[in-house]
Automatic annotation (TrEMBL):
Signal peptide: none annotated. SUPFAM superfamilies: ATPase domain of HSP90 chaperone/DNA topoisomerase II/histidine kinase (SSF55874). This is Uncharacterized protein. InterPro entries: HATPase_C_sf, MORC_ATPase. It comes from the Eukaryota. It holds the Pfam family HATPase_c_3.
């Protein structure tokens, strides 16, 4: 008898990134989605910056917050579909407690892919002295003629002097 590990996994076609992004009829709702992510209580950010920068000759929107960062497992879930851990904050209501906004694990993907074909996420987790980088890319999948979405992700340990500069 076959076990669960013998079953096929569901796959996501890279074209879904674009079709999913069309839930945002204009760019500002996509930007609002990304702002909401920084506002959630598990992020613990109290400042958010949105800058327009030219990187490698391309115009980019850069979202930066001063939250607590993510480890690679959390970043992987954020960049995957349907993972949401915000329900654990629902019962913590109080006068100064932020309530989570998202609940379906789709906002980052729909928002970022409405604004661009690629999203590169850098995050520093001071608590574990790690940094993670994740890449959600329609371009990479199209250029590689891929029929399944892939998610390059890297986590590394930061030396103390870099950690101090990054989270100052």
């Amino acid at each position: 008898m076959a076990g669960l590990s013998d079953l096929n996994n569901a796959k996501v076609n890279p074209n879904f990134l674009h079709s999913n992004s069309t839930s945002h009829t204009w760019s500002f709702s996509a930007i609002a989605e990304l702002i909401d992510n920084a506002y959630d209580p598990d992020v613990a950010a109290n400042e958010l910056w949105i800058d327009k920068e030219r990187i490698g000759g391309k115009l980019c929107l850069v979202f930066t917050d001063n939250g607590k960062g993510m480890d690679s497992a959390t970043l992987s879930k954020m960049m995957s579909f349907g993972y949401c851990e915000k329900a654990k904050y629902e019962n913590q209501a109080g006068p100064k407690v932020r309530m989570p906004i998202g609940q379906y694990g789709n906002g980052f993907k729909s928002g970022s892919m409405r604004l661009a074909k690629d999203a590169l996420v850098f995050t520093v987790r001071k608590e574990s002295q790690t940094a993670s980088v994740g890449f959600l890319s329609q371009t990479m999948c199209a250029d590689g003629n891929m029929d399944t979405l892939v998610l390059p992700l890297l986590e590394y340990t930061l030396p103390n002097y870099i950690l101090f500069c990054a989270v100052k």
